Write the structure tokens for this entry.
Amino acid sequence: MNLDAGIPEGPIEEKWSNYLEHVKLVGPNNRRKYDVIVVGTGLAGAAAASSLAAQGYQVKTFCFQDSPRRAHSIAAQGGINAAKNYREDGDTTYRLFYDTQKGGDFRAREANVYRLAQLSTNIIDQAVAQGVPFAREYGGMLANRSFGGVLVSRTFYCRGQTGQQLLLGAYQALQKELNTGNLEMHPRTELLDIVVIDGRARGIVIRDLITGEIRSHSAAAVVLATGGYVSTYFHSTNAVNSNCTAIWRAHRRGAGFGNPCMVQIHPTCIPSTADFQCKLTLMSESLRNDGRCWVPRKKGDTRHPAQIPEEDRYYYLEERYPSYGNLVPRDVASRNAKYVCDDGYSVLGDQGRAVYLDFNDAITREGKKTIGERYGNLFDMYEEITDESPYDGPMRIYPALHYSMGGLWVDYSLMTNIPGLYAIGEANFSDHGANRLGASSLMQCLADGYFVLPQTIGNYLHDIYMDKVGTDHPAFKQHEDSVRDDIARIMSIQGTRTPLSIHRELGELMWEHCGMARTAEGLKTALAGIEDLQEAYHKDLLVPGVADGPNQVLERAGRLADYLELGHLMCRDALERNESCGCHFREEYQTEDGEVMRDDENFQHVAVWEWKGKEDAEELHKEALEPEALPPMTRSYK
Amino acid sequence: MKLTLHIWRQANAQAKGKLERHEIDGISEEMSFLEMLDLLNEKLVTEGKDAITFDSDCREGICGACSLAINGRPHGPGQGCTTCQVRMRSFKDGDEIWVEPFRSGSFPVVKDLMVDRSALDRIIQSGGHINVHSGPKPEPNSIPVSHPVAEEAMDASACIGCGACVAACPNSAGMLFTSAKVSHLGLLPQGQPERYSRVQSMVHQMEDEGMGGCTNHGECQDACPMEISLAFISRMNRDYMKATLIEPDQRRGKLSNQ
């Protein structure tokens, strides 16, 4: 497997400009001769598709939703980072790079992260020009807030709906391109296979979710912007339809999968209390600007939180991490919530696991109105779900699966190891290493979509000029047939297990053994358990209804096959990585006070897995990470 | 909690639909309305029956995929929330509940409770955007936007595009939806160059989608999960009026041509 990342020469701050100076281009009059497929139209996909169509490429977009505006990017709440240094608090491009690298526990690719920091400021300019209504101060200037893991205020926001507003900006840009004739949109379709001919990605096979029809589309290049894969855990903050199918099927066609075990557990979510829950709801990290995490010092203290005096409260983050306090990075905050609950201090007692996130001090200090303006919609959301108002008492929160740092392996130009197949946004692995800092996923999606891919794709397209392959090529027919066979097989099992019940069991196994704390023994248990579930899936699955019309149970069943395989690989990857770093906490590798213990000598690499067919185990390849600008150091937030 | 549900079943856009009766037991108060439907579906699937088709995705009130009317009201009994945010504590043991898709001529039923709301996308396509390409842009602080204006633009831009306003309106008007986008972009300095052409093309598209006009019932505002204000409709009407009076394309013509 070729894992040459193609990192440009020169000092880190000049790599991107060096790349741009030497990249091959397609001329404006030739771009209309190239079809580009973009799958997934969330932030990254909509940004890329609209930019490419505006340049003159013939773009086709695909999404399973009825409209691109419903992609799950819309649920991102807190904000987007940019090194604007508007607050004069010492922010620079280098500091954003530094924070992101350190936040990711030095397991991301340095050159990509630096480029991300450089592009961060352009994103804000772009979004404002599109009419994104970022919060403003009274003088009319853009407002900022802070997020975890940093010592500056560099996060831009639109109330608690930043993802929504940025997505609407990208969605509107996309709708606009429909008027130019350069863009064709295929909503309510799902990618089921990637067509690779002579080593190049040449198209996709999709299922029309309304008619059930299986169709092919060919293109000069295929871009996957289909998001992350934490739905593998069943309970997560992702949307109920977010799935790993596109990236997994690409992996099965030869695309390397980077760091599958790196998934983020977000510290502040509404806890899971019943098994009927379909998902867990996130409460934005921005709440930790004003909210204080605590548990009672006495086990089983059943007093109302307001009745518990200050001296009986354990503000565990403030005490353990005095310099960052409640704004430690997500992995640290999550792990500490787990520790206090493990020790029996859960504020839900026997009913479940949770800690308090308390706004009382902030409300007393700044008034209910100011706090309401900052977090009103989040407080309302919390109250709707729990029937308790955060204005009157603390929230009860607990960590939940949220984001996947791992994903398809890509080089510096965001191309996978299959020429012509790109992965952008959360679907790729490149920028967040072992832990993602808050407010940087929106940043990465938009950097990839607006500024990176539109400028790198020409380098590939230039190369295949005039060499066209259409859907009449026999490979398309073969791929379609294999997709049809797959569906027919799923429909014919007619066993007793519903896809939902198998998915739920997979989720429990993953959360227990491949969640916040992992052990070699636990991971082996999970691997065996997943193999049993795979057998149950193939022998005893039950999918009623028909395949030639809308069938949401069939959709779920198809995605579940991929979760089962990916879940297995995630456990293998976690087992193989004999160190702790960021979110990946192997209990065997920790310091005396319970912090992660990295092993740079043996694990300073991206683990890239290669599919070897159904019967054979995946093969592990390594891309060595060679940090030059920022040598790895012990990651401390004390 | 035990409930009786009457749920709209319709095989496809052309088929004739009907209400189907289901009894469901073991519903807890903390469940969301859609989790209750998940439970019913799981029961149907186990019995080998066709599950009820409905759109949903984020399940936290922001994606706008929910398209259910509960007891005739889009998004059900809650105020300022979507169907997925409605909790079963809004109902009591023994209740009978009627569940239908959003009803509007502009939203054809696809299957069961799933509808086609592409009309809303076409309204945005017609002008709900600012014509800028990706690339270097002016420093945003060079154009100050006062706090109240930014907040009002955000109030309008909070629209999730669910279409409850259209479904709730006796005229099936798309005016709250359209005016929210017209106002969001029309309030901000970045939206000024296309302000008057935008309002015209969006209003015309809305009419082409077969949506009616506003006659001040206020049902849209009441059903809106984001509580978007009727005042935006007045704002849109004002802009539309101005646009027809001062449309730049006409102003550029010579007097003799008119």
User: Anything to note?
Assistant: Chain A touches chain B through 80 residues (CB under 8 Å). The longest strand of chain A covers residues 395-404.
